[in-house]
């Protein structure tokens, strides 16, 4: 890909900017329709990628702080945003901290998307705070960015694992845990509701008060919490190897309205089973209120814990111990409480209720059959998922089980099936490769970049230097990011229109071991001239 | 990224590393078992569950069918008594009623006699809390502060023993069973103690301590609906009198549903009834005291044997059979789906 940056000189006014934006936007739209990948126009790299779907020519936008100033002051944000939407990535160089945060806020407000900011210097703090997720890099530039951020990492390259692995895990854990808590409480409280039909709607509870309170507090609290902390539904290696799995979280595939409704229906069904099977068993007999509530309590505990066990994808020692201990603790507590409370808790005073139940075969028969009936539909659906229409995460989980060599093979097969453009999996430093959608698919919107105007000295921006779109290294695999270096000293000078002559527009690739501010080897010497402090900031969307 | 190395290599080794530990817990690399729903495990679990549930269900249904039960509704048959009891001023008038039935086959084994009530909500919240367990422990408590209100004291200040609505509404019909042997009528011997939980009789219920029972309850009065005071509940057996009377204890154990039965008596296996109840004609003689017409309730008397799995209710057996069938059918469905789709499945063939 050849890139030519147009050079315009002279004072840049709002009308000029507006007309330039309009012109560029028209051209981009035309190109987008025509799908002509090799046209060049002004500073726009004519391979555009529309925000909606797949393969079309991709554009990149480079803009500098001075222009941004004109845009914001002249009220041209909408046009700027419209242009940016057509671009694969946008590079904003030489922008002030305020401009950085204004760009983030603009994108967030208008496009209503999740924004992520990553930066390492004090000038990135406002941008970090403006975005939905702010990531600070701790290191040479000090700790201000870290203190203002939601997440702090020590190297830029850790962003990949943060998003693909920890982000995925965090979403999966939280979504499943929240759904589980809703389900658990709906199931348990509905038991009390169904009893109202048989006690004249007087508010009588058939479960002893203390056992009811401790149900949520002790007996069913640890497994879901442990699940929410430790569960790993897909292994880290697979997540790094298959970035498509990131879409799973972006599309809220675990916690949609349909999932919630299904969970609520399942909760109602399970509470119906947990109540009515004991009810019909004990109907017309001489059972008393609290001896009726005891097996219901036990059954619902077993059902709820087994439900959690079905959801858990990773069984560490902690999980096993917690599950067993929850049941054992319940039994021990019930037995002790029922052996000591003669008058301690009116009106129940469940003295010897549990012991009596444990000596009755009907209790054991109930405890065996009711969880089975209650969980049969859910188990059936889980079993079918592996056979019919497995979602990508399920395939990825199956992938984990394969030996390593076969894993890579399967990843490639999956990729080639799922993509519309072929990605060459082996990365190299040749910038003239096709852009793989794989790498960009987690990021649906162009990264904010900057449009440079009229920078005079030409360092001879060659394609190898100024590819704002992609650079891959073998170690980094398939991920895509955009970095540039910005000079601190130019931040305040932009309005004066003087450039120090040092090139702001240098997207650099990051190879392992390099910290922020590293550049491609072509530009290294050019860039280092006169830069006192370099901060690296990126706004990715 | 196995280990976040320190960022400042040139600073010398004196500075301690601020990286998190490289332990399995903190790096989230704990050894774990990842369960997979393979076709083998799924199918085997379904079929095993199905087989197990079916076999247990069949056993349960067969044992429930072995239970012999006779249930007789006597609130209709004793209509004149029930009309008498509608007026509460007739409380001290006795009313007797007879109900006949016949057994075609003898009932072998232990026979239990229950009284059954229908539409009597012992599980109503305010009813359930209306008791004082401290008083029933024989302690001297101030029942004014208990949940027994309003069944605590009379207007002249005499406390009720026992207090509360549960005790007040105790079932006070007397049922006797007679067997017509040729031309004579024999009363079937019944056991009236040993019917309640051992822990109830010995731990939860105690009579107040005194040299004799009537002085123990001195200064108290019977609840308003009772016909005799609590220390006269069973004058023949001292250990079945007062608060520890079995009928009283059983009644205080409030039942879970509006249609319930309580154990009343057990057939004593002596003389002609050593094996159970022989075939023939029987008569219940009932002293009708408990009014049920006001709340459209019904009363029954039930004779039943018991088995290890409970009573004559076959529901648990049916539930096992149904779920066993469902599990087996689901197993077949999954097998069919798997066989059909196996050719189409192209990925992850091991």
TrEMBL record, chain B:
Q: Where is this region: Disordered?
A: 1-20
Write the record's keywords in alphabetical order, separated by commas.
Glycoprotein, Membrane, Transmembrane, Transmembrane helix
The GO annotation for biological process reads:
phospholipid translocation
Residues crossing the lipid bilayer are: 37-64, 315-339
Pfam families registered for this protein in UniProt = CDC50
Q: Where in the cell is it found?
A: Membrane
Which cellular components does GO assign to this protein? endoplasmic reticulum; Golgi apparatus; plasma membrane
* Main subcellular location of this protein, as a coarse class: membrane
Entry similarity comment: Belongs to the CDC50/LEM3 family.
Q: PANTHER family from the entry?
A: CELL CYCLE CONTROL PROTEIN 50, CELL CYCLE CONTROL PROTEIN 50C
Name this polypeptide is given: Cell cycle control protein
**Which species is listed as the source?**
Phaethon lepturus
